[in-house]
Design brief:
Layout lengths: L1 E2 L2 E2 L10 E3 L13 E3 L6 E4 L4 H13 L5 E4 L5 H4 L3 H6 L2 E4 L2 E4 L2 H8 L4 H10 L2 H16 L19 H8 L1
């Protein structure tokens, strides 16, 4: 847009659920230039017992311009989020005000959450039927083999993992 012969760049609209960081305060969860709303949404829910999962979340948090609040499911009230233990053991979850996405679709949600227009467009592309199908197959394979991935441990294996009361007993 031109104003009196000089080019004026229109400000970018704010990201949903994010506000520019007020450097005078440290309230809120920072994410490289943004602060997550106090509502805590969106929320990325991952398996905190899995070293590969935790390492992946930490790597993405460092690499992406914006990152939602992320919590291991073991530290959350799953019922309050509308999730079950089986769902969170099976796949990573994206929760945004009662709307859930899981598995490979979380990649699309994470990309669409970015302030960078190109990344948001890539996220939209990832959510188209042909690409979404490929991402789902890749996600299922990685999830099934996460204990063999770099940084993975035997605790990352999905099969034979205790849940419910057995899990609590082992933690004590």
């Amino acid at each position: 847009m031109r104003l009196g012969g000089a080019a004026v760049i229109a400000p970018r609209p704010p990201m949903p659920n994010c506000h520019p960081i007020d450097r005078r305060t440290t309230r809120g969860a920072t994410q490289r230039g943004h602060v997550v709303d106090s509502s805590g949404f969106p929320l990325l829910v991952y398996d905190g017992d899995c070293a590969f999962c935790t390492r992946s979340v930490n790597l993405l948090r460092k690499r992406l311009p914006a990152f939602p609040q992320a919590q291991p499911w073991q530290q959350l009230d799953l019922a309050a989020l509308g999730l079950t233990e089986q769902e969170v053991q099976d796949a990573v979850q994206w929760v945004d005000h009662g709307v859930h996405s899981s598995g490979g679709r979380v990649a699309s949600e994470l990309l669409r959450y970015q302030p960078n227009r190109a990344l948001r467009m890539l996220g939209a592309l990832c959510d188209t039927p042909p690409v979404r199908s490929v991402i789902a197959v890749v996600y299922r394979w990685v999830a099934a083999h996460r204990h063999q991935m770099p940084g993975g441990t035997a605790a990352c294996a999905i099969q034979d993992r205790p849940s419910g009361p057995d899990r609590q007993h082992l933690a004590a």
